[in-house]
Amino acid sequence: MQTMAADLRLDANAVDYVLLAFYFVLVLGIGYMARRHVSSSIDFFLSGRSLPAWVTGLAFISANLGAIEVMGMSANGAEYGMPTAHYFWIGAVPAMLFLGVVMMPFYYGSKVRSVPEFMLRRFGKPAHLVNGISFAVAQVLIAGANLFLLASVVNLLLGWPLWVSVVVAAAIVLSYTALGGLSAAIYNEVLQFVVIVGALLPLTIVGLYKVGGWQGLVDKVTAGPGGAEQLDSWPGNQLTGFSDNLLSVLGIVFGLGFVLSFGYWTTNFVEVQRALAAKSMSAAQRTPIIGAFPKMVIPFIVIIPGMIAGVAVTELQGDNKAALMAGDAAPSGATFNQALLLLMRDLLPNGMLGVAIAGLLASFMAGMAANLSSFNTVFTYDIWQAYIRKDRPDGYYLRIGRVVTAIATVLAIGTAFIASTYANLMDYLQQLFSFFNAPLFATFILGMFWRRMTAAAGWIGLVSGTVSAIVVFVLSESGVWTLPGQGAAFVGAGAAFVIDIVVSVAVTAVTQPKPVSELAGLVYSLTPKEDRQREVTGDDAGWYRNPGLLAGIVLVITIALNIIF
User: Fold this and answer.
1) CB 452 within 8 A of CB 282
2) 206 CB-near residues (< 8 Å, 6+ apart)
3) Which family does this protein fall into (predicted)?
4) What is the pLDDT of residue 541?
5) Range of the domain at 413
6) For residue 1, pLDDT beyond 50
7) Where is mean pLDDT largest: 35-44, 88-97, 237-246?
8) What is the pTM of this model?
9) pLDDT for 30-50, tens place per residue?
């Protein structure tokens, strides 16, 4: 990155800097205002469970609209093309609907403060501690990825050294997250969602105009490295690394669409935390479903700009793209991670450039703030309060939450430099998800629907699944097993899921289950139907607020998108 700064410097002027300064003042102001409403740990960590569904729904999707979505998916668009849409239409929406309709009644109804706390009630302390630690580690690593990309933009904009950019970017996110807790993060995420869309939509339109419309993009992608295969989402061989069409489809549907997707969306506290902040069971259920509506169309403003960059930006065209796709360094020195920045540099006039930069910074701050706010909740409640300092006054844990937020920010500065070693950050992030989310989903889904599963099976299966994903990663990295693209993450996720299930069943067969009386509200068959239903009065009344109906509408549209593209 450092060697490219002179070539990639964004030509911002005073107008752009004024827009950016205004945006940062607004972000910090929201953090300060939210601080006035924080008087307890529940206010800080879960917004007092008082927010309406539309706010939590937009925050739900904005929390995911960080480095993973904006830079990572545009990088994937430049490298793989339309198959990247699978991360949305197969790898997100179905799991989001499942979370809203099936799993949120358990999370919200049990009044847990975090996903690891649900693990504590279902499986006991060992599984709780394993989940708490693995989640905390994952959030610091993912926050580092968001921070690295945030710093990269500051580096290109101002020409500061990367390490200075990292520290300054981290300080801004820390300021408003530590001030106002989850409320500050959520209200900023709603603002950031609007800014992100407002920045990326014009970039997409201008980019399509530059390449001659959709048909012009089709012609240029067909003639370039990767060819026409990048214009259809199926079978996505370049994305999965499989040359066989059937294996590629199975990898996408099972590895991404089931294991990685359901593992991320249904058990990842970063997302679940937003729904837990909702003011009622119905609002909590609608949170991920409301988020699914914009999720369906986001590919058109993040993947297509990446595809345009792959055919219109000099540093990513032709031989440069071919070299990067082969895993080599591009002659230009650019990487796919810079696809969006390069396109902004080439296409946007001053003023619009400032809005676009603000949109990028907003996306990275949303992602990092989500990581920090979920990390401080899990660390404070599920590690510090549960195992280190029990039975202290509520104000003590509120102070610990703010201190832990600062510590997590410092750790993320360190992990940002791990992320900087990857040419495509989606490869890195999907690998992390295969380690942490896939085995957790296996444990969750088995424990939620199988009353016989024991506490010992919960933590032993979880550890076994994680280890198996790491083994697949090591075999791939050492060359023992060649899995190009993101195939290693898909295979690792599948292995983690299967091994976790097999080990959990085997351990359950030789250990004692919990009494049935202790599993009500934690196991589907033992939870009364009325406890799994939404309220139908007041703000929750009306057919248009029915989670099942809304989920059905989203599902039909998603199926249509998969057929069309």
Assistant:
1) no
2) 347, 348
3) Belongs to the sodium:solute symporter (SSF) (TC 2.A.21) family.
4) 60
5) 14-30+49-564
6) no
7) 88-97
8) 0.77
9) 777 777 666 666 666 666 566
Query: Residue 22 corresponds to which tokens in the numbers above?
Result: 């205004």
Residue burial 343-372, b: 16+ Cβ < 10 Å; e: rest: bbbbbbeeebbbbbbbbbbbbbbbbbbbbb
How many angstroms separate the CA atoms of 179 and 198, rounded? 27
**Residue 2 maps to a domain:** no
What's the structural domain count of the chain?
1
- The 3-state DSSP class for residue 478 equals coil
Phi, psi of 374 (to 5 degrees): -80, -35
pLDDT over 80 (residue 102):
yes
Alpha-carbon span 55 to 65, nearest angstrom: 15
**Residues above pLDDT 90, as percent of the chain:** 7
Burial class (CB in 10 A: 0-12, 13-18, 19+), 14: exposed
**Domain contains 36:** no
Is residue 241 left, alpha or beta, with left meaning phi > 0 and alpha meaning psi from -120 to 50? left
- Would you say residue 84 lies in a domain? yes
Of 148 and 95, the one with more pLDDT: 95
- Residue in 304, 5, 15 with CA at minimum distance from that of residue 151: 5
Angle at 230 between CA 433 and CA 472, to 5 degrees: 30
- CATH code of 203's domain: 1.20.1730.10
User: Can you say whether the dihedral through the CA atoms of 128, 531, 497, 552 is positive or negative?
Assistant: negative
Tokens standing for 237? Answer: 């061989």
Residue 217 lies in a domain: yes
Residue 516 class from Cβ within 10 Å (0-12 exposed, 13-18 middle, 19+ buried)? exposed
Nearest to residue 432, comparing CAs of 270, 289, 306, 274? Answer: 270
